[in-house]
Amino acid sequence: MTARRRLLITLGLFAALLCADAGGGKKKDTVHAGDLSAGATFERATKLLAEHQLRQATAALKRMQFAQDTRAEIEPLSRLAMADATFYQGTAISWIDARNLYLDFVTLNGDHPLAPYAQLQVGLCSLKQVSQPSKDQELTKQAIRDLRAVEQRWPESRYTVASRTMLLEARANLAESEYLIGKFYFKKKNYTAAIERFRIILAQFPDFPDVDKVLYHMADANARNGNSVIARGYLERLLSDYPNSGFLDPARKLLGSMEPLFQSDVATQPSE
Q1: Of the candidates 174, 196, 212, which is a domain's last residue?
Q2: Do 124 and 245 lie in a common domain?
């Protein structure tokens, strides 16, 4: 489990428990049996969830009975806890089911303090279902839409920071998919198609962490396609903007191999 995921799990559980404690701490003149049952059951369920006893937590949440005057406060939290319990099962099926549960929470409780957390989890469920970058990327595109909704709907929420981080991951996955398609065309010597894929990455994914390798293969594809001047521009950008790239030596070698072409171009230009 990554540090980021542990942090998100902790934040989600902590926020839910805070809300539960805030509701449970209110003093009332009359204590209803239904109130005590719902509060005690929810407290037990969240404790089981924090201990990763998911089956027991789910069973406890399903047994909850709400009093009329506390339903509006406790039922949304129980829905969110049920979604969390489903999500943490960590299977492809559970992520699909959890996404639906989180979406239901957002739909029914869009003004709840934890609605942005639920929307963040919607995106994470989509992102969890993404397989290799070489596979179909519809789920990645869905994850991007889900994650963007966090900042669009709740721009002041603390969960927007996490959504931006996950959004970068999703976009990197999509860019890597485009890169692999470009490399496929490159190997097939369809350099025009490869160039188009690399161009998409440079235009649409400037935050891609491996832009340097795209620049190198963009230059190589252009060089092989007879566009030495264009290739040189990409190589010079790589050499100047990415001094720590692992593609520096191949870039210098490719640039050197094209030098005779540049000299030939200069020699054939008409004199003034």
Answers
A1: 174
A2: no
Distances 154 to 115, 171, 240 between C-alpha atoms, Å:
9, 21, 39
What is the domain extent for residue 185?
A: 175-268
Mark which of 174, 208, 227 sits at the end of a domain. Answer: 174
Q: Which residues of the chain have pLDDT under 70?
A: 1-37, 131-135, 261-272
CATH number of the domain enclosing 259: 1.25.40.10
Give how many domains the chain has, as a whole number: 2
Tens of pLDDT, residues 124-171: 999 998 866 666 788 899 999 999 999 999 999 999 999 999 999 999
